[in-house]
Amino acid sequence: MRRVVVTGMGAVTPLGNTAEEFKQNIMAGKNGIAKISHFDATETGITVAAEVKDFDPTLYMEKKEAKRMDMFSVYGIAAATQAMADSKLSAETIDVDRLGVIVSSGIGGMKTIQDQVIRMDKKGPKRVAPFFVPMAIGNMAAGNIAIKVGAKGICTSIVTACASATNAIGEAFRNIKHGYSDAILAGGAEATICEIGISGFAALTALTPATDPNRASIPFDNERSGFVMGEGSAVLVLEELEHALNRGAKIYGEVVGYGSNCDAFHITSPNPDGSGAGKCMLQAMDEAGISAKDVSYVNAHGTSTPTNDGAETTAIKYALGEEASNIPISSTKSMVGHLLGAAGAVEAIACLAALEEDFVPPTIGLEKQDEACDLDYVPKTGRKHEVEYTLSNSLGFGGHNAVICLKKWRGE
């Protein structure tokens, strides 16, 4: 089986519009959550979100082109363009038939759907925008990226709610591992901070009503009351090892394991016994050929909802047994909120940063740890820690579980 490494990264996030800026801010424990500014959210009962800030789409495309896409596609193209530049790959230097794109979105063009339904209701069906469908459908981040970079290999989008990006990275890993591709752009993109997005999740009582950005996304805290909506995109270039070495590529880390399964329990709540997510973690560890004592850091799904954090704690214990108490765990959603279908991709970058820097990012809002969440969640500030293997957990509505295992690159 072929080995798979990460040779490029790109990101547009609430804590920076490049992968490097995001990594520095996440390690420093900065907070990207603030009062909602995209629209007047007064009537929703929700005050804060983790919005992308100071983003200029014209750095990546013409203004006319951007207007014909929903923002999730625009964010995706920006992150993918950065990742390709970072990897120093191009259509001229690779067999484009073996260059793929697997970039997911949990929801797709939600703002476009909202705006065009309102327009149809007010002005009639003949006034719906001609680009409505290609702006709205969830596969178009992947499709637009493939067009942008000239990738003619596999091009798909996996929709598993909040597990989407991790599934995308995992499936890209397997595709390269088994010889179907030489390189794949993998990740996720999401842009749901809009009236219907916030209102819909608020109606589900999934979002926190907290007004203080520093006490809003507080995973594993006794006072947690829901997640904070985030937005943005992150894309990795996954590449076959020999292909990367032959062209002298910089290697950030190695993907060595992947797990994917389903709780088959409830449409929104995880199984409280932790068995689904726990078995998913074990799948990733088994493929990586490691045991619990080899795991150096776990990037938890850690949404800050009452149901997730306790169940995930149980899942981590299920998978890691007695070692669970010895392993640092953190939720970077405490800083960037929940990017839904893009969450696993930004969290993969956080894991790669931990591997590179031997530094574990913090769970910044954690002040009053829930007694039922009794593991080491790296509260408030990050810490130096030797990191050899990381697990990144993503758990989605519908019972979808996805976990990837990443390994430090030591040049061998």
Automatic annotation (TrEMBL):
Domain Ketosynthase family 3 (KS3) stretches: 1-408
Please verify whether the record's keywords include Secreted: no
Q: Tell me the CDD domains matching this sequence.
A: KAS_I_II (cd00834)
Report the enzyme's class at the first EC level: transferase
The catalytic activity, as recorded, is: a fatty acyl-[ACP] + malonyl-[ACP] + H(+) = a 3-oxoacyl-[ACP] + holo-[ACP] + CO2; (9Z)-hexadecenoyl-[ACP] + malonyl-[ACP] + H(+) = 3-oxo-(11Z)-octadecenoyl-[ACP] + holo-[ACP] + CO2
Record keywords: Transferase included? yes
Spell out the catalytic residues.
C162 (for beta-ketoacyl synthase activity)
The protein, known as:
3-oxoacyl-[acyl-carrier-protein] synthase 2
Give the family this protein belongs to, as stated in its UniProt record: Belongs to the thiolase-like superfamily. Beta-ketoacyl-ACP synthases family.
Cite the PROSITE patterns for this sequence: KS3_1 (PS00606), KS3_2 (PS52004)
EC no. given is 2.3.1.179
